[in-house]
Amino acid sequence: MKRIERTGMIIRVLTENPNKLFSLNYFTSLFDAAKSTISEDIAICRKIISDMGDGEIVTVAGAAGGVKYVPRLSDKTVRQFQQQLSERLNEPSRVLTGGFLFTSDIMFDPRVTKFAGNIFATKFMDLNADYVVTIETKGIALAVMAAEALNLPLVVMRREGKISEGSTLSINYISGSTDRIQKMSVSKKSMHPGTKAIIIDDFMKGGGSAGGMAEMLAELDVSTVGIGVLIATREPKKKRVDSYYPILYLDNDPEDGRITISPNDESLE
Amino acid sequence: MKRIERTGMIIRVLTENPNKLFSLNYFTSLFDAAKSTISEDIAICRKIISDMGDGEIVTVAGAAGGVKYVPRLSDKTVRQFQQQLSERLNEPSRVLTGGFLFTSDIMFDPRVTKFAGNIFATKFMDLNADYVVTIETKGIALAVMAAEALNLPLVVMRREGKISEGSTLSINYISGSTDRIQKMSVSKKSMHPGTKAIIIDDFMKGGGSAGGMAEMLAELDVSTVGIGVLIATREPKKKRVDSYYPILYLDNDPEDGRITISPNDESLE
């Protein structure tokens, strides 16, 4: 097999499996080639991916080492995405009775959620989490894309305990957006104690859902190491969680209540 | 830029965006290269992807033409996935009180759902659907991965009408697994009349949910052109929908009720 074919295949395999480590042996036996040949191939792949500006190929040294592809979006690419998405969300037809914003098409859009998942992965990759966690329903597509990019399992908390979840742990919490008591529940077999989780959700206002999830995780002896949402309201500034990363902010004009969505311009680099 | 770099980047761009058409001009201006050069590059990429056995690069002729990557899994690859997944699902610890099977970890596993999404894309690609549709909650990860592979928007039906969905259409239907009346609801602005949809769900027993979704789609003047589920029970044979494609079958031993999961060995080639 020629070098041009091997490098094409290596790029395909690595980028299809973000954050998954492949040993050099995997490629030497796949291509029946010498280790030195594969090392040179990978150096070429690394340059190609680096030139594309949205990820990198990382080498992990040692006996259990190998290479992996990691998403690593530049601020410029993130800003472009945020601008385009803000424009879509600022279309006047999205405003519903009661001042709600229609976002379901965007929260389940595969391309939007995949890109957002790569942003969350860029932000949270170095935290070495064990799980991505969300609560049904509208954050699930975002969360599964983040979990894919981070190569982590996804745990979805439910509003009600289900027979098919087996034995569950439940808590009540106050939703910041509705001021009502809500319930969440999670299967006890879904997570191991002493691990770390990243919480992903579609929307944050008071932080009640994220706070409730963090509380639930604490009950399971799982620590929350990061919280990411697609949209957070700018007000109230004080939320029930201290630290969170929103991709976009929502502002309500104090005069006429008009909603404006805009990028969070925090740097991820 | 060298050919080896161009081909690596073309493979990356195409496979990251399944079923999305890129004009030749896109690549000629990206690389500042002649059309004949890019055509030769693409021929090399086509061979590389074809040799990998899980997809192909397709050329669409004409003024609005271009190239796109489409997932196209071989039966051999599908069978391997089905075998491994059946083994995971047949672990005795998954059986819950009441004979239910714990599947949540699998239904939200990013790698499993991504592979399953590529199977559904292979099966349903030629139907030229406009939407992928599911109902909350456990089919959402599968459905968003199928939607990504098919480059289609995803519509998620809800159990209850939500303020944030705007004006909704609701129906009641009988769930085949529980024999209870359930409700489903969808935002009227989520789909255009006169279009086609593929229904994806995690599990099918009587076919009540899928039948309910098809009924709802008919109300919106959307025709159901395909139904895919991860697991379908072998009994009852007669379900509320005529035609559906399960990746796996579930058998209940008539003597002791023991559950066995096994591959659907229908060919997709």
Helix-strand layout with pairing:
The structure is a homodimer of 269-residue chains.
Chain A: H1 3-16, H2 24-31, H3 35-52, E1 55-60, E2 66-71, H4 75-89, H5 104-107, H6 110-124, E3 131-135, H7 140-150, E4 154-157, E5 168-174, E6 181-187, E7 195-204, H8 208-219, E8 222-233, E9 245-252, E10 259-263
Rg of chain A, Å, rounded: 21 Å
Which residues of chain A sit in consecutive blocks of at least 5 with pLDDT less than 50?
none
Strand content of chain A: 25-35%
Query: Which structural class fits the helix and strand makeup of chain A?
Result: alpha/beta
Largest sheet of chain A: 6 strands, mixed
Q: Return the CATH class of the largest domain in chain A.
A: Alpha Beta
What CATH architecture of the largest domain in chain A do you see?
Answer: 3-Layer(aba) Sandwich
Envelope shape of chain A = globular
Order of adjacent strands in the largest pleated sheet of chain A:
4-3-7-8-9-10
Proportion in helices of chain A: 25-40%
CATH topology of the largest domain in chain A: Rossmann fold
User: Which pair has the most extensive contact?
Assistant: A-B, 55 and 55 residues
By DSSP (H or I, 4+ residues per run), the number of helices of chain A equals 8
SSE order of chain A = HHHEEHHHEHEEEEHEEE
Tell me how many strands of chain A there are: 10
The quaternary structure here is homodimer
